[in-house]
Amino acid sequence: MSTHRLTAPAPGWTAATDVVVVGSGVAGLTVALNVRKAGLRVMVVTKAMLDDGSTRWAQGGVAAALGEGDTPEQHLDDTLVAGAGLCDEEAVRTLVTEGPDAVRRLIATGALFDRGEDGEILLTREGGHHRDRIVHAGGDATGAEISRALVAAVHTDPGIELIEHALVLDLLTDAAGHAAGLTLHVMGEGQRDGVGAVRARAVVLATGGMGQVFSATTNPAVSTGDGVALALRAGAAVTDLEFVQFHPTVLWLGPEAEGQQPLVSEAVRGEGAHLVDADGVRFMVGQHELAELAPRDIVAKAITRRMQEQGADHMFLDGRHFGAEMWEQRFPTILASCRAHGIDPVTEPIPVAPAAHYASGGVRTDGHGRTSVPGLYACGEVACTGVHGANRLASNSLLEGLVFAERIAADLSGRHRAGELPERTVDVEATRSAHPVPLPPSEARAEIQRLMSRGAGVLRSASSMAGTAAGLGLIAEQGYAHVAEEKPADPRVETWEAANLLLVATALVAAAAQRAETRGCHWREDFPERDDAHWRRHLITTLAATGGPVSTPEEQ
Ligand SMILES: Cc1cc2nc3c(=O)[nH]c(=O)nc-3n(C[C@H](O)[C@H](O)[C@H](O)COP(=O)(O)OP(=O)(O)OC[C@H]3O[C@@H](n4cnc5c(N)ncnc54)[C@H](O)[C@@H]3O)c2cc1C
């Protein structure tokens, strides 16, 4: 392999703040608003517009034990079942006990959730929940409302500086190894254009998911796993990467469809829509006590299995019995997106197939959002707090973003009061990321996605993943060669994203190939059983000195 590699070009400008937050979804903006309460200055940097992450796309809602008769303990039980033996019970307990108040605080910030005529918050049910405990907004536009409320709140605080179109590249650390800022590539005009550096006393990653590592995903274009790639390059531990949740019911747009695809929320099944095959047979009945409302991995596997049996590339979700009025009032977004693609759910079943939806794993954190690099925090989908285990329970992710963002802010505030946050003394030039980045051509993105969907998607086996790993290795080789040819000072954003996708895909396959069992949303065709004796433990992934990811099973 060629030794030509690229590090970030020298920063052309620098800025400073107390806490720099990367990402402007539910997690990032909640950190920003709460850190401000301690009087610290905050800078939020985000690579597109403020509302371009997954948060805006969330449909179903936020899970919290707010209903009569419901308790955090019952929410905990459902979460542990979905997590298939790998949840961190302490983290789940934090989520479910602090969750209801976190939702109330979100309402106080300005989020408007759907209420009944009596003024009470309406609660619905989703897959894997034994209670009605999902709060929603605008029917099926929950994320858009949360995003609207949080964006409005950060705009009113002059102590929060917002930088859009700023792609964060790598972490800066001080002489003691403490996170001390970031390098970033701003696509703007004026003083802060091109590659620059932000000095800070702490860094929070809230960069969302990595769905774009697969061809078909519900995630928006920005979800390229940048936070996980950055953390790996910074020497942080990541974990549970193999547990990618494939949403069972994504609108099927044809065999050639790529990139973000419209989701048909679990809530549609929650309200009584049926999954049927081309012959109209309800194939989930008899497979699980909750039938269509079984946990997502069970439904995704059953759909995939049925598709294989029948040689079909999709199944159907039948909600015709809802009638036009219910579709219009309860699911206006889904109705509109189906109709935009020529399907009318009022009169015909919706064609659906599974697609990559949620990363249960990510940058490993403790209960306060701290990663293994001092001063580097992570929350939201980029983090692995341990609440999801081997499979996320529906609507627990927005809640996790809220709860653990608040916990990070509390930790930072406490450390600030105790005088424990380091000053910004870092010499930017001396501490730029030591880990070089092989840059593949930006066109590699589509090839990485195809390789991942083919060999490391819903169905995985040693041989399918070996093929994917070989293909990814080839792209890395081309990346190194490409660097030798390219002028290294000005890589494009697409190129940085392709580099991150390549690193994250390689790490994901390395972990998935090691986990020789089927558990949660990780389904191995060659190891169809769950193997608690060997695998009731996490795989921790770090970057070796040679640059490649290494996954090590945690001690049992
Ligand atoms: C279609 C869909 C429906 C969903 N429905 C639900 C639901 O009903 N309930 C639920 O709980 N969850 C749902 N989820 C999951 C949930 O929306 C996400 O897990 C959650 O919103 C993640 O929030 P976040 O703040 O961590 O990240 P995001 O909202 O994804 O935000 C990430 C931010 O980081 C920025 N960013 C990324 N990389 C960089 C970089 N290198 N430099 C600078 N900025 C960067 C992005 O631009 C973005 O602003 C859904 C997800 C999707 C895609």
| Helix-and-strand structural type | alpha/beta
Using the coordinates above, name the CATH class of the largest domain: Alpha Beta
Number of folding domains? Answer: 3
The largest beta-sheet arranges its strands as 7-3-2-11-20
**Total helix count?**
14
How many DSSP E strands?
23
Largest sheet: 5 strands, parallel
Overall spatial form: globular
Instruction: Give the percentage of residues in beta strands.
Output: 15-25%
Integer average pLDDT: 91
- Can you give the helix content as a percent range? 25-40%
In brief:
With 556 residues, the protein is an alpha/beta fold.
Write the topology of this structure:
Blueprint: E1 14-16, E2 19-22, H1 26-36, E3 42-45, E4 62-63, H2 72-82, H3 89-109, E5 123-124, E6 134-135, H4 142-155, E7 160-163, E8 166-173, E9 179-186, E10 194-199, E11 202-205, E12 216-217, H5 226-233, E13 238-239, E14 244-251, E15 259-260, H6 266-270, E16 274-276, H7 296-310, E17 315-318, H8 323-330, H9 332-340, E18 350-359, E19 362-364, E20 376-378, E21 383-384, H10 396-417, H11 444-455, H12 462-485, H13 493-514, H14 532-535, E22 539-543, E23 549-553
Parallel strand pairs: 1-10, 2-3, 2-11, 3-7, 11-20, 12-15, 19-21
Antiparallel strand pairs: 4-6, 5-6, 8-9, 9-10, 13-19, 13-22, 14-18, 16-17, 17-18, 22-23
The structure holds flavin-adenine dinucleotide.
